[in-house]
Design goal:
Shape: elongated
Distance between the termini: 36 Å
Strand order of the largest sheet: 7-11-8
Bound molecules: flavin-adenine dinucleotide
Oligomer: single chain
Length: 213
């Protein structure tokens, strides 16, 4: 494909075998991994970064999304540490959920510390019951996936109201596959701190962009 470079880059015509549309995280990653083909990454905005950009207006800096990257994949962690050694700070996640006039550690579905005993009971009983439900194939939608995965108590007291607020739509309209991968799933043989101890269990490590870097 041939295209014309912007005036500040010479303005002349170039031929490229590999052209990547969009300089967000996906396009930049594709460009990095296809470097041997000398790809051109074409971005329609004046700066790369896509949703991860920030812009300044009237003296205030606005981030287009949250600048926290939740990294699970070992290769991605290593890649980011290698190509952007000073750009990120690692943080231990210290999040909590305020519910029923108390705080319980994140993630709700693996803790429930401090909640009223009746709520804890409904969450634990519902979770155990859900382990014995023989789901018929893949859940049809995110709503059904929540009920099948966490049971009726966790669904009622946290997962459904929280996610309806977060996604601002009927959870039956969202496929489970779209969101389930990012949700922490407690296994029964792992230590659930249901009302007894305040512990931090899953997904306790996140990376955030170094705003000073
Ligand atoms: C509110 C919100 C909060 C989020 N919070 C987090 C978070 O905390 N942690 C996390 O890991 N992820 C978060 N995400 C998700 C993450 O930001 C995105 O998954 C990621 O940035 C998407 O990257 P992308 O390259 O796929 O798309 P984008 O970032 O959308 O990039 C697409 C790029 O393509 C360009 N483009 C589009 N069309 C053309 C065209 N025709 N020609 C040239 N260029 C074009 C656009 O201008 C843009 O720069 C959040 C997302 C949202 C919306």
């Amino acid at each position: 494909m041939s295209f014309r470079l912007p005036p500040d880059e010479g303005g002349h015509e170039v031929m490229k075998k590999v052209v990547i549309l969009g300089g967000g995280l996906a396009g930049l990653s594709a460009g990095h991994h296809l470097a041997e083909h000398e790809p051109a990454v074409i971005e329609r905005e004046s700066a790369i970064g896509g949703l991860c950009r920030s812009f300044t207006q009237d003296g205030f800096t606005f981030d287009c999304t949250g600048h926290l990257i939740h990294l699970k994949n070992a290769y991605t962690k290593e890649l980011i540490a290698r190509i952007l050694p000073d750009a990120f700070h690692a943080h231990e996640r210290l999040a909590a959920i305020y519910s029923k006039s108390t705080t319980t550690p994140y993630p709700f579905q693996a803790n429930t510390y401090g909640l009223p005993p009746q709520v804890i009971k409904e969450c634990v009983v519902g979770f155990v019951e859900s382990m014995h439900v023989n789901g018929n194939g893949e859940p049809k939608n995110f709503h059904d996936w929540v009920l099948l995965t966490f049971g009726s108590g966790i669904a009622k007291h946290f997962m459904l109201p929280y996610n309806e607020k977060f996604w601002k739509q009927d959870l039956r309209a969202i496929t489970a596959r779209r969101v389930a991968a990012s949700i922490v799933f407690p296994r029964p043989w792992q230590n659930r701190s249901s009302g007894c101890t305040r512990t931090r269990l899953w997904n306790t490590s996140i990376q955030s962009r170094n705003m000073s870097g």
